[in-house]
Amino acid sequence: MKQVPGVVVGCLAVVILMAGCQNKESPPPQPQASPPSAPQPAMPTDIPPISGAAPTVIPEALRGKWTAVKLRVEDKKAGQSQEYVVNLGGELAIPSSSLVVKAEEFLPDLKIEGMTFTTASSELNNPAVHVRILDNGKEVFNGWLFQLFPAVHPFQHERFNIILRDSVAAS
Q1: Are 124 and 146 in contact (CB under 8 A)?
Q2: Model's pTM, two decimal places?
Q3: Which of 32, 77, 108, 157 has the lowest CB atom count within 10 Å?
Q4: Using an 8 Å Cβ cutoff, are 170 and 79 in contact?
């Protein structure tokens, strides 16, 4: 058997390595990480059934701080939604329906103490509005709408969703 000179073996090794490097596929592009979104509050798991019949205590320092709420009314049949500003103590007759929404009290940080609704602070940590909804003059809902947790104890209706979108502070 003939011996191959070391220089030839070295050259062959270099050629094989270069060919192997050229045939390598570039790694697939890595998906770009989406920018972090604002943290969403965790959905509470311990909210008891609540109705608007219990007393509401608004601390004196907060009386008159909010004058209205913004409600979004979604018409599921028409596939449309509209926002309305409703004064606290006022009402909204929903167009093309027999529903009337009465906005009662607004609490910026709703908490339940025993059988009383009050606020834990003046910050908008758990904004909620107590509403009464009438259909043809008959009360069909008496409860709280939560801005951050609209799926907790929502108003349930075959055609309309009513959602608390925001609060309006006194100027």
Answers
A1: no
A2: 0.70
A3: 32
A4: no
Task: Dump pLDDT digits (tens) for 28-60.
Answer: 555 454 444 445 455 444 455 555 567 899 999
Q: How far apart are the first and last CA of the chain?
A: 101
- Which pLDDT does position 114 carry in this prediction? 85
**CB-neighbour burial class of residue 63 (10 A; exposed 0-12, middle 13-18, buried 19+):** exposed
| pLDDT given for residue 113 in this prediction | 87
Question: Could you tell me which of 151, 147, 116, 145 has the C-alpha nearest to residue 133?
Answer: 145
Question: Hey, what amino acid is at 102?
Answer: K
